[in-house]
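Inputs:
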Amino acid sequence: MHKILVAIATFGLTSAAFAQADTTMMREIYRQSLTKGEAYDDLRYLTKEIGHRIAGSDRAEKAVKWSESLMKTLPFDRVYLQDVTVPYWDRGAPEKAIIKENQDTLQVLALGGSVGTPKGGLEAEVLEIEYLSELQNHGEDVQGKIVFVNKPWDESLVETGTAYGLNTAQRSRGPAAVAKFGGVAYLFRSLSSSTRDDFPHTGGTRYVEGIDSIPAMAISVVSAERLHSALQHNPKAKVYLEQHSGWKGPVQTHNVIAEWRGTEKPDEIITIGGHIDSWDVGEGAHDNGTGTMGTLDAIRTLMKLGYKPKHTIRLVFYMNEENGVHGSTRYGELAAQNKEKIIAAIESDAGGFAPRGFDIKASRASVDWIQATWKPLFEQQYWVSRFLEGSPGVDSGIWAEQFPNTVMFNFRPDPHRYFDLHHTAKDVFEAVDRRELQSGVAAIASLLYLIDSQIDQLPK
Amino acid sequence: MHKILVAIATFGLTSAAFAQADTTMMREIYRQSLTKGEAYDDLRYLTKEIGHRIAGSDRAEKAVKWSESLMKTLPFDRVYLQDVTVPYWDRGAPEKAIIKENQDTLQVLALGGSVGTPKGGLEAEVLEIEYLSELQNHGEDVQGKIVFVNKPWDESLVETGTAYGLNTAQRSRGPAAVAKFGGVAYLFRSLSSSTRDDFPHTGGTRYVEGIDSIPAMAISVVSAERLHSALQHNPKAKVYLEQHSGWKGPVQTHNVIAEWRGTEKPDEIITIGGHIDSWDVGEGAHDNGTGTMGTLDAIRTLMKLGYKPKHTIRLVFYMNEENGVHGSTRYGELAAQNKEKIIAAIESDAGGFAPRGFDIKASRASVDWIQATWKPLFEQQYWVSRFLEGSPGVDSGIWAEQFPNTVMFNFRPDPHRYFDLHHTAKDVFEAVDRRELQSGVAAIASLLYLIDSQIDQLPK
């Protein structure tokens, strides 16, 4: 009995001493990031001097080279590029969509991966539906028509990511489904959380082998409402469409990688990062300039504080998350081939709004342990309180299958405003708040510190 | 033993049934607020059609009358005005502050309550300090000088309210302290969380009887840095100041009150609201248009859902929080005089950003109970997770002393951006996001529902 009490007392003290050290370290991390952090300034360069950067484009390669040089200014042990071959898709000249009878110009953007219209554009009647599943009810009626999927966003969800997910399949599968029924083009109501939004939101789509490709466009919410009204008034109204997009063949580009060697277990790796490519509109500020510049700055924060990692911390800027995920696929292939031991991953690809927490892919016991041990360090003082079991990010998710035991964290900033500007011309530097961004950097740096110093304590 | 098990089973079932009903009700509240809420539209009217509204001004009275008519459109049982006498302070013609030697114009705003400069303005050398406590070291040197308190904001705190509180006493006590040492004017570095901010932030100040009043101004952060540089270059540099502000005597104005009568315990009252006045710059959007329009819309949300309150819900728009708190003082006096039983209060006066939770003034046991029982209803699905012991809002705090047993909730939206625009010309309608505001309305409506339906279960 006496021995047990002593053991408890000792454990209690050790625990308290650990917690005290963590509290002190986190205070220093937050002070450094909020007062001297450089993510915001780096983001300004990425967005204003380079701009949007779709995989395969010259700008994407400029972003790669600039990222590499930026990493080389920091005391990483190794900075290198990892070859990735991507299919380059180019939008071409601006799209057009006009309701013929009143010459009303609709706001549209080609969906990524879409083919162009035939030379001279195309003009056709429009079939408006909410769900692709309605196509079969219309049967032969679909032939020769532009199919317009006008499904409104579910505004009732605070978790806008869920609302987005409810309808992404209709974006990606639409063109093939419509082509199968003989439709000539696809118009898709933008996935926007704002009902007053006249910006089209682009995004990926895909075709199915053996079915002819047809042109596919996103139409803004406000324009979708106008087209709906026009069709109510005249169901035979015709729309003229013109777009010049298409695949331009494979291009060799790169993931950008930097390693900070572990002092105790250099062969055990913590991967942290996000995708460096963006869609080809706006400036890719929240998607995903904040994720790349933020994770880099999280590491820089620890470096500036003189921290020495136990494990190797590897920063990865993935190429081509937006239209192919070839970068993270390649990363996973090589890591598996080299039998690397990746013990944990942090991904940031949900914007640079006020930090709320992390979704965690780990055993139930590990998530419980993190909630009990790490969450209290964040929640009261730093307003970060969401540590829930959930999905890794898209890029980590790609290679998660080969690394089932890697504990994965997906950074979650506030979700309210992200899908107002996601994949649009509105996603620019000015939409990012410095304090919110640097608060997120501090949260990520704190988590990175906790993983590196305490991951061995996680229940198996 | 058998009886105990049955009791536990019954209690368990009842509990679960309650939780199920709460979950359903909250889903309806969120759906109503996010898809059909009207706080944002009401806010547009208040900010764009009425604008800023300092207590005692014609616009404040216009806001009172419009609020009264708005409340009368809803099925309240009683809508009335409560007389409040306020001292009306008027800014007069725009202020001027110019560094004489280079004619550099500084961005300034008179602090609320300040006297004007003598006719023709004043010109004097400047004594720059960080803390008022330094005045005694300077002794007679202060005489005839403009004292410039140039204390930077503590950027390292995520809780910006704490950073604000660190320095408000220097704003309010500065003029009296400086006058006591023979200083001729007071220049105070604005309480802004942004380091790149050229907008002055006004706010209240006060004098002490028996000491001559001197003019007091807030200077923008960027201008404060420029003045600091000028003084580094030439410590004898003079500054010219001109302002035309002053007290214009007492004005009778009003609190605006609406009551929704309880069906079971009409004599037990839940007070909810915030202040309707604002500073006399910008549009008083986040401070406190969102608090008044938001709490009104929270009640409207319950009304639209057909809810019948057990207790009387009383909406109060307090007058004069910003420069005197005469409205809430009067509210407390009358409530005490009438021996009212106010069981709970909700205040909203911290902006309309994404909702994070509520600070709670209640017994430790009650706070624990709320964390265990109500917090789980909010945190995962609605991203509202902060239910901590804390201060009530300023207005509730005024009458809390007379009502020590009232459980008080202070709505806490995200704190990152609030003090970028607080008390400035930047606090306009465009700075409010509809989704964030309506998400907060839903959180407040949900709390109001939980208080009304379950307050009897709170530990004593």
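The interface with chain B takes residues 30-31, 34-35, 155-159, 193-194, 354, 356, 379-383, 385-386, 388, 414-417, 420, 433-436, 439 of chain A (CB under 8 Å). Flag for discussion at group meeting.
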